[in-house]
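Practice record 12: protein with adenosine-5'-triphosphate.
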Amino acid sequence: MAVAAMKLSEKQQEVLDTEGHLLVIGGPGAGKTTISILKAAKIAAALRPGQEVLFLSFARATISRVIEVIENEHAIPKPIKSRINVETYHSFFWRLLKTHGYLLGLPKPLTILTPSNEAIALSAIRGEYKADGKLSAQEKAERKVREQAERLRQAKDEGRVCFRLFAYHVAELLERSKRLRQLIAVRYPVIILDEFQDTNADQWRVVQQLGRECTVIALADPEQRIYDWIGADPARLDQFRATFTHKNVVLKGENHRNAGTDILLFGNEILTGNFSKKEYAGVELRTYSANENEARTALITQTYAARKRLVDSKKKNWSLVILVPTKKMTRAVSDVFRQPLAKMPPIRHSAAIDLDAAILGAEIVSFLMQPPSLLHLDGVIDLLCNYFHGKGGDSPAKADLQQAASIRKAFALYADKKAAGRPLPLNSLMVPLLQTYEQLKQIPLTGDPDHDWRAVRKAMESAPCARFKGVATEVKNIRLLERGTQLRQELSQDWRTFGRYENALRITRQAFVREHFATQAKPEAGVIVMNMHKAKGKQFDEVIIFEGWPRYVKKKIVANPDRIVRANLKDNIDDQARQNLRVSVTRGRQRTMILTPQGDPCVILV
Ligand SMILES: Nc1ncnc2c1ncn2[C@@H]1O[C@H](COP(=O)(O)OP(=O)(O)OP(=O)(O)O)[C@@H](O)[C@H]1O
């Protein structure tokens, strides 16, 4: 609905009319984001030139939804819209650090240590420990301390700052410099903090400092807190109350997202486990037989049906999201949609999968596009090892770290043998690797980046070396040259200037850093697959929550991965699991379906 036609609730009006620090509390769809934008517009209209309202959010996708609200609100004139600056916490912190980090003794210039490169930097430490499940609490704590020390060292010595240090350093800066706090307040007299319940300790330190000079407006739902695992704290709202003289407004009982359905009622009852109704309008619980084929068929059939409903509704930019409990499953569902079972047509979709492997793979492709005179085997070996060190992101697989070690070892042996004029052992992994490297160097390039990129990737796919094949498969996950045209343009420009891709690797790396900060222009539409954790702050016309199924041997469950509650055991139900499911369920505007295995349905719901 266009916000222009919107009648504000009494409490929303109160938000609009209140001055000073503000804590706005409301459940899913209560209209927190909406009213905060209207309030931002009201404040912006009275600002002095050069001043803006700053709206801070966690995810880029939330930002696009916020921007959409602003765009729909025809009552907000353009010059006023342009005075509302919507930004992620990360990107705001980075701006501060880049300019003022030297005050903390950080080198200048600073660069971002992207998540994949952070994983590479930490892989040596991580490689020394067993898998998470096999570590004692003490070992985990020790590893955490060592990882943090390495992150700090990377920042201080190398000038490479990873995302999770942004708030840490900015907090330090603002705690020390009143002048900087004042500068920020002059530019941003009012700062809106979205999803405040999910701020971690360092972010809270930053907010405390900002609130000394600026007016802060925190939007929160204490029961949508899903970031405990990265530092959110149930005490946060009370800390806000104790720190700031503020007005508290509760948008109680309001639901503008899925009004007319029982979706919110069902979501709220998930928190207590007391279900008051047999049927909930707009909510459907379905089971599938607990095996791979049945699971896939159920998901695909339900997705076809939901898509048909939405297409038939003729709604513009309809959205259907499939929410799954794990990253692994996001990928699995995306693969199934691409190649469903026999004769079933594929489902066009976008998937929010982790791109660490694809990004590091892209570095290899771009390196191989560089002219042979700039290519060297050491460089390829380094990038391949980086790929294996970083492809698992925060949780690298032992096997991948070992791959990297084997490549290093085989390369050292190759160098020794070569120096001694001796042949390589025939079974060395360097044999197919060298063959592939030679083949890749021979690929004729044309100056059309899209074409050339594909040529290198295709050649990798059919290469003798299995490691390169793996890289090619991962790289398929990003359509690098389709996203915006900047990378493409820069590569073309590089070719025009030098008659070859002189700087392909550097250009590609920069493109990914940029990508981390880019704001999606539009909220997601069509069929989307994502991890439940990523659904926060978003809304979709229909939601399908699809969880994994137990594996049986002789009728006993031997494994039960990818469940909403870990292993689907009653003992593992906690607030996090309940809140996470509630957030997912309440994302649907019209309809939410939960697909769960027969015989062992989600324990929260039984
Ligand atoms: N007063 C209102 N009248 C009609 N529709 C409204 C009103 N306020 C908000 N809406 C609409 O309701 C939907 C949900 O609002 P909004 O996204 O602001 O809620 P929220 O509290 O931020 O939700 P969440 O915490 O679940 O992200 C949006 O589509 C918005 O346009």
